[in-house]
Amino acid sequence: MTTHPLDSLTADEINKAVDLYRAYDVSDENTLFINVTLVEPSKEFVRSYKEGEEFDRSVKIVGVDSNFQMEVL
Predict the structure, then answer these.
(1) CA angle 71, 65, 68 (to 5 degrees)
(2) Does 3 fall in a domain?
(3) What span, in angstroms and rounded, lies between the C-alpha atoms of 16 and 56?
(4) Residue 2 belongs to a domain
(5) How many distinct structural domains can be found in the chain?
(6) What is the pLDDT of residues 3-47, one digit of tens each?
């Protein structure tokens, strides 16, 4: 469970991001996900964050497959 907006991505969050990418984009068996990272929220959001509040997180995925290189948010 994520407890702060700047916490590292959990394995579950990384897996969900990759699953979403695969569900909505054409990828093949050669797709290689090179990097899955947190898109940091704005400083204003972090400053106003109160412990226990629910929040959404965004990730950036970088990878390659047989046809192209990709970078998605």
Answers:
(1) 60
(2) no
(3) 13
(4) no
(5) 1
(6) 899 999 999 999 999 998 888 867 777 888 899 999 999 999 999
